[in-house]
Amino acid sequence: MNRAFSLACALALTLWSFPGLGQGAGITGGCLPPEEPFLPVDDAALAQYADLIAEDFERYFAASSEYFACMDATRQIEFERAREVSERHRQFLERLDQLGLRAKAAVGQEP
Fold first, then answer.
1. How far apart are CA 10 and CA 18, in angstroms?
2. What is residue 104's three-state secondary structure?
3. pLDDT tens digits, 57-89
4. What is the CA angle 70-72-78, rounded to 5?
């Protein structure tokens, strides 16, 4: 049972993390923020790895641009989805009115 649960959790995390594989992709758009570059405190390490650190910063800024573009696209998709859900909600309320059931679905109102 424990192994099956672990496998199920691993599968769920995989589907959640990668765009196009699971429902989680629709929620976040699969946008992952870039990892920040490591900046050593030690001056000797800084001097020794300056070129690699500089590359990491450049990689970070490029990935940040991609991340922002992904977030913008996701935002647009979610706005469209909210519009569609709002339309379905309007249709739902209209059907309730036709059936005389609107009062049953009155959320946040006293009967």
1. 12
2. helix
3. 999 999 999 999 999 999 999 999 999 999 999
4. 100
